[in-house]
Design brief:
Number of strands: 24
Structural class: alpha/beta
Distance between the termini: 23 Å
GO molecular function, one term: hexosyltransferase activity
Pfam families: Glyco_transf_4 (PF13439), Glycos_transf_1 (PF00534), Glycos_transf_2 (PF00535)
Keywords: Transferase
Protein name: Glycosyltransferase
Strand content: 15-25%
CATH architecture of the largest domain: Alpha-Beta Complex
Strand order of the largest sheet: 14-13-12-15-16-17-18
Number of domains: 4
Number of helices: 25
CATH topology of the largest domain: Spore Coat Polysaccharide Biosynthesis Protein SpsA, Chain A
Shape: globular
Helix content: 40-55%
């Protein structure tokens, strides 16, 4: 329950909680004080002696900000299975919680449950209100004839809804840009949430017997309040609709202009006739249309992403995949994002795959005056004239800049500052120490002033970043280490996948397989993997090497394998989109990189129960230094690496133990649920 200056209703509401019948397993009430200035806290403290009650303070204004703060608290308790949300002016019936709990138990295939919301009128409502006001939209009341059963998610209202923990564990939170926030706001915080989770496959059920009474104050029966609610509903409706679903003009469905003229004429005629009821209905529709158009024309909501995620990108790699995952995390939390990168080979196919899951990508190629020395002054003028307006047109509220190398992405950081937008930086590699030139230094001091937070994918990456840029960071900037993640539902041990992959490669049943999922490029050093194979086959003649990936070295590697007499023992598997189908076929996963930002393939192997072996370089060290799921080998000592990998191949029990530990570590440290929660907490308060 979120409350803001709830002193007028809290005493009655909390007294009703004292009369609740406890469901099986008990219950707890968490009240999040959203910056109250009355004596709400004293009222809550007085009832804390009689109720299983916890008090939390959240100073950021907004009901949904308060609800998300409360969720962070209650989900820390592993015993929490069902989260019930309500309001500080909703009086529960004695068996309310029991009915919700029993309904959730009886319908395990459903994840969201709505209950009945009846009116608790502070004063008798006029007949015209009951006859002409849309009571559900205006007061959050449920229709009296709504029966038990599956229900449209938009009919589950915020004063009486229960949500299974699994929904929140999947990353869904309330959109903090919607709902009451102490000023003029767009309605739809709860319905936006329920519709998003419904799109993800979580179904809703209505439980008629779970009843609360929503207190309706006297001023809420007056015309100014009713028209204000209509405007707020229009604003919220705009945000929940998909752009381009119907023909639009000036960002608004064309039919609305005709509708506005009809409603305006109807309001005038009704006033002339003295038909107050008809005049109200027309004015309500006009207020709704006004709110919708206002939201469209001020560039809010769906017209622009909450976050613009951009970088200097030259290929589809680990950083780009992490940027897309960031967009998923933010979308689940109610913040739509736009991925904006340079075009690169395969970007069109990548964009199509993103679009299929509802993520947006657009080409964005600002002139590079930080990253490239030549023509730097000319490029900065071009950026000021053309790239700054281009960034503004996207309408984002925050820019996320991914840094892949020492200053690659700094031009986008400067652009965000020119647009007066706050910035989050993510660091995806270990940077080489570099001298900041007199040309760059003043621009960096200016650009870094927009940075509200920095996270790195590893502790080593953060140290390298700070060694170069700490002097430019605002002292208030939030710092965090948030690793890359792996989908542990897709990447998992699978005996059938192991057999299928080996059969596809044409390998003997008793073969040992070294696998390497990596781009065939210089920094990954696949030539060392072939050299290792040649040495290891003297001890393990049943050993094969599978290289999964493509790259500029492929032709040279094929020549190397042939000259070393290893041609028939090296399988070039090429690009594999569903890597999870082949990784279980490895006995070891090998990454012989000369440098790594993080090494996503390493944690993917661990999730598949495959021991991970990598060179002792930054990025891989951060994963495997204290891990029991694999081991590190010297980066530049082939003899020692051969000996250690040979010993591991000879020790089946150790490999099996490593596989079990690796899987457990992937679940505990790198799963989507774990990393997604870290990302959402990092962004908390920054957007």
């Amino acid at each position: 329950m979120a409350t803001y200056n709830g002193a007028p209703t809290l005493p009655r509401v909390l007294a009703a909680y004292g009369a609740l019948a406890a469901p099986d397993g008990g219950w707890q009430l968490v009240i999040v004080d959203n910056g109250s200035t009355d004596h709400s806290r004293d009222i809550i403290a007085a009832h804390a002696r009689r109720l299983p009650l916890r008090y939390v303070y959240e100073g950021r204004r907004g009901k949904n900000a308060a609800l998300n703060r409360g969720l962070a608290l209650v989900l820390e308790d592993a015993a929490t299975d069902l989260v019930v949300l309500t309001d500080d002016d909703a009086l529960p019936a004695p068996n309310w919680l029991r009915h919700l709990a029993n309904c959730a138990t009886a319908h395990p295939a459903y994840a969201v449950f709505g209950g009945s919301i009846v009116a608790d009128w502070a004063s008798p409502p006029p007949d015209w209100v009951l006859a002409h006001v849309p009571l559900g939209l205006t007061y959050g009341l449920t229709a009296p004839d709504l029966a038990d059963g599956p229900v449209f998610p938009g009919l589950v209202w915020g004063a009486n809804m229960a949500v299974r923990r699994a929904v929140f564990d999947a990353g869904y939170r309330f959109d903090e840009s919607l709902g009451p926030n102490g000023g003029e706001y767009a309605m739809g915080g709860e319905t936006s949430f329920t519709r998003r989770v419904a799109d993800a496959g979580f179904r809703s059920w209505f439980c008629r017997d779970a009843v609360v009474a929503h207190h309706i104050r006297a001023h809420q029966l007056q015309l100014p309040f009713l028209l204000q609610r209509a405007r707020r509903f229009g604003r919220g409706q705009y945000r929940q609709e998909r752009p381009g679903a119907v023909p639009e003009w000036l960002g608004v469905p064309r039919w609305m202009f005709k509708r506005a003229l009809i409603e305006a004429a109807g309001a005038v005629l009704a006033s002339v006739r003295g038909d107050a009821a008809a005049a109200f209905r027309h004015r309500w529709e006009l207020a709704y249309l006004h709110g919708y158009c206002r939201e469209a024309w001020r560039g809010a909501g769906r017209a622009g992403p909450a976050v613009l995620i951009t970088s200097h990108s030259g290929a589809l790699g680990g950083m780009e995949l992490r940027m897309a995952q960031e967009a998923r995390f933010l979308a689940d939390a109610g913040y739509p994002s736009l991925l904006a990168t340079h075009r690169f080979p395969g970007s069109a196919e990548w964009s199509a795959r993103l679009a299929a899951e509802g993520l947006r990508w657009t080409p964005f190629s600002p002139p590079l005056f930080f990253e490239q020395w030549r023509w730097r002054r000319w490029n900065r003028w071009r950026a000021r004239l053309f790239a700054v307006p281009a960034m503004r047109r996207h309408g984002a509220r925050l820019v996320h800049v991914a840094l892949c190398w020492t200053n690659y992405g700094a031009s986008a950081l400067w652009l965000a500052r020119q647009c007066r937008l706050p910035v989050v930086l993510s660091v995806h590699g270990t940077f080489a120490m570099d001298t900041i030139t007199p040309w760059h230094a003043p621009m960096l001091r200016h650009a870094f002033g927009a940075v509200g937070g920095v996270y790195a994918v590893s502790a080593t990456a953060m140290r390298h970043f700070l060694a170069i840029y700490q002097a430019y960071l605002p002292p208030t900037a939030r710092l965090a280490v948030i690793p890359n993640c792996v989908d542990t539902d897709r990447f998992q041990p699978c005996a059938q996948a192991r057999l299928t992959a080996r059969a596809h490669w044409g390998l003997p049943p008793d073969s040992l397989v070294l696998g390497c999922v990596a781009r065939l490029s210089v920094e990954k050093r696949p030539s060392l993997a072939i050299a290792l194979l040649a040495r290891l086959r003297r001890r393990h003649p049943q050993l094969y090497l599978v290289l999964v990936g493509t790259g500029p070295l492929e032709s040279a590697l094929r020549n190397q394998a042939e000259q070393a007499g290893m041609k028939q023992y090296v399988i070039f598997a090429g690009y594999v989109q569903q890597v999870e189908t082949v990784m279980p076929g490895f006995d070891l996963h090998l990454l012989m990189s000369r440098n790594e930002g993080f090494g996503i393939a390493t944690i993917e192997a661990m999730a598949c129960g495959v021991p991970a072996v990598a060179t002792e370089v930054a990025g891989s060290v951060d994963i495997l230094r204290d891990s029991q799921g694999g081991m590190l080998v010297p980066a530049n000592d082939l003899e020692q690496a051969t000996a250690r990998i040979g010993d591991l191949l000879a020790d089946l029990p150790l490999r099996e133990a490593m596989g079990r530990h690796g899987r457990a570590e992937a679940l505990a440290r790198y799963s989507i649920a774990v990393v997604g929660q870290q990302v959402r907490e990092f962004y908390r308060g920054l957007i």
